[in-house]
Amino acid sequence: MSEVTEGEERPVLIAYDGSDPAKGAIAEAGRVLGADRRAVVLTVREPIPSFVLAGGGGATTLDPTTIRVMEEAARKAAADVAEEGARLAGEAGFAAEARAGLSGSAWQEIVAVADELDAGVIVIGSRGRSGFKKVLLGSVASAVVQHGGRSVLVVHPEASDAPGKG
Description:
Rossmann fold; alpha/beta; five-stranded parallel sheet; 166 residues
């Protein structure tokens, strides 16, 4: 019987967006981190901004009721994705639960939830962008590594069982 270290007693936070790299990251995390650990699968979506629509009759602003309905749909979509991720994490051997939210910054929400849970490790898939694309598009994985204040398992698509790989 192996001794459980302090980091293993703390939950694993899995950032999951439904993408193939995120699916592969869950499978790889199951292999690397071992079975039967508690995991929280977090899906973060951006909130619906209040914006102005321009048309033939001039500009109009979406009413608050429409924005609320759109935000509720975004919350439900995020919850559905998080549930899918929790199912995959369960298949990978984790005792998983789903969590979803809306935030203007995915990496900040991931770090905040990791802090709230006192996560032992954050798991995140990388799309493998480099060079100009990385600078132009930014990188949630890079920001989590920089600002997370804890261990981060970044799974590159070539190192995982990401669907469509190869």
